[in-house]
Amino acid sequence: MIEFEEALSMILKNTGILPAEEVPLDGSMGRVLKEDAYSGIEMPPFDKSAVDGYAVKSSDVKKIPARLRCLGLIQAGEAFGRRLARGECVKIMTGAPMPKGADSVVMVEDSRQQGKYVELSRSAEKGENVCFKGEDLKKRQKVLQKGIRISPSHVAVLATIGIPSVKASGRPRVAILNTGGEIVPLGKKLGRNKIYNSNGPMLSALLKADGIEPRFLGIAKDNVRDLKKEIRRGLDTDILLISGGVSMGDYDLIPSVLEGMGIKKIFHKVNIKPGKPLFFARRKNTIIFGIPGNPVSNFLAYLIFVRPALNKMRGCQCGKPGFKEGVIETGFHSKLGRKHFVLVEVLKRENRYYLTPVTSHGSADVLALSKADGFMAIGPHTGVIKKGSKVGFITWKKI
Length: 399
Description:
- By secondary structure, this protein is an alpha/beta fold.
- It contains 7 helices and 28 strands.
- Helix 1 packs across helix 6 (295-313) and helix 3 (199-209) packs parallel to helix 6.
- The longest helix has 19 residues, at 295-313.
- The mean pLDDT is 95.
């Protein structure tokens, strides 16, 4: 049995980085940008109106009310061929190019049309309500740094400067296999001594939240033939997640089946609670996680082991779990000997995180998991944590 830190180190050591690929911008979400992005244009590419209103010379609206002759209308995407003379204005829509001779825009709310003339009830300083060429972005300006994980706002800026595709990290292919004769698919009748499959949908949801569309292999029975058949189907992926069958019972066959298939075991058992029987193996470029079958163990293993591996595959700098520091709101007793991950509620007050342990009946208690915001991590040699103590924690929510 190895310690948590060693297990994580061995997982990352055996996880390769996927080669970069050119991907369409609308398919780049969640991937890691593999090269700096530069703007080939200025933004805005021309002086434009920031509002619906009237393009004017600011000198013409010093005295209010001002009565100006309106020469017409400029819509977004159109141009106006004339230069404004003194005493003239043009009605203009948001985003339309400013006419020559105009230096500001009076909002339409501050106007009253009178035939060919407009009465303006508010003055405008030079440059008011105008977006000037290049004020947001200069040509050849770096807009995104290599190594960032592409978000919706990143997609927006890349689209704005006309980039249709980017060089980004490969997307890991992940398969999920559930095991156990007691597991029933959702939608089926729940027979005697059976339980619904919660781990499959839960792992799928975690992966989708990380931008991965997993392949679900189904539920394998606890016999060597079925397990081998389904495992082979998952070995053409980058990561195979096997839920259940890794403990010490008569039907916990995953370790022996994997080794019998010539798959190299890296380690089996980690000194943590929950999740001690975790099995990790590798076959060529595929890494395999054998995760204890209880749902809380599955959830924790994903956060502290699977997600870091996914991040490394994508070339993300955030390879290790993102532990934060919190303050425990109530005293807690932990058994010595194993690193203990305890479900907690997390509140943020004045830029500090406050943790309250969630009452739980063990690693199968999914109701407790649903009430929690994270896991606090207690070292194997810490038995008592006093109220007000600082504790590390990991969360899957935005708090």
